[in-house]
Amino acid sequence: MKAIVLDQFGDSEQLVLRDVDEPQSRTGWVTVELKASALNWHDVLVRQGRYGSPLPHTPGADGAGIRCDTGESVVILPSLHWGEREAAPGADFEILGDRTPGAYAEYVSVPVECLAPKPAGYSWAQAAALSLVGVTCFRALFSRARLREGESLLIVGAGGGVATMAASLAHAAGAHVSVTASTESKLLRAKDSGVDSGVLHTDDNWPQAARRLSPGGAGFDVVLDPVGLWGKSIGALRDGGRLPVLGANVAEQATLAVRPFFFGQFSVLGTTMGSPRDFAGLLDLVATGRVAPPPIAAEFPLADAARAHAELENGRHYGKLVLRQ
């Protein structure tokens, strides 16, 4: 079969199409003939060697395709070996494409519990783009932050897959959604997709500007930070608010003033990926028809994975980037 192979860590040009062996059959695992694979920032970190993947290696967490044993159309949950506790993943947890060969290929093998029916009405690209950002956002917003109907949510960084999915899920649950963005064009795209309001985060005073958009100007019930700007993001919360954090592509260190933090009764909630139970909750919400499919910024042939990664890293797109097999 054809697959993208990484022989050494580095820039996007390390991603090379090659002939490799098809996955071997093993008990409890299923081979999927992939139709599409979506890109995530996590894949960039794998390519750079942040997760110590074995080399040579095929990355890729997200995929959708046909089960080779039953012929069913399926979408893949990238959380492998979550474990028995819903509170956090177990010691054997990994994301597909970390150590297990991933979805930048014509075929991939995954545990049977990581497969679910492809959502009705979704294209292959939309289905492939759903899983990682969908389960991550579902867990962050609902399992961790307990976002409820009528509450207010601010999403830091409109334009990426996490932000667009989070906005769609929050709207489906009846929350009021605002965003921050790096450019006017991304802000306009977010508003066109149904976001209630937004501000640019290029100004150092953006938390104060964002607060003015919240109900009564008191701050947001929940601020979702997928980029690592805790010190700023917490300034947009109302007293007693919750800050789920799940990324660090802008900053990997955060400094918080201790006294305002405890007087504000804030909660900072670490979260990543999601369990099979979270995935089931996501797909139940999608089945209501209230969740818009992930917007697709561009599709690339599998052989153009290096070009797709370069596009992912420049950050100018709005929505998800997808490889088509």
UniProtKB/TrEMBL annotation:
Secretion signal span: none
Highest taxon of source: Bacteria
This protein's record includes keyword Cytoplasm: no
Sequence ranges assigned to domain Enoyl reductase (ER) in this UniProt record: 10-323
Listed InterPro entries: ADH-like_C, ADH-like_N, ER, GroES-like_sf, NAD(P)-bd_dom_sf, Zinc-ADH_QOR/CCCR
Molecular functions per Gene Ontology: oxidoreductase activity
Keywords (A to Z) from UniProt: NADP
Alphabetical list of SUPFAM superfamilies matching this protein: GroES-like, NAD(P)-binding Rossmann-fold domains
Name of the protein described by the UniProt record: Zinc-binding dehydrogenase
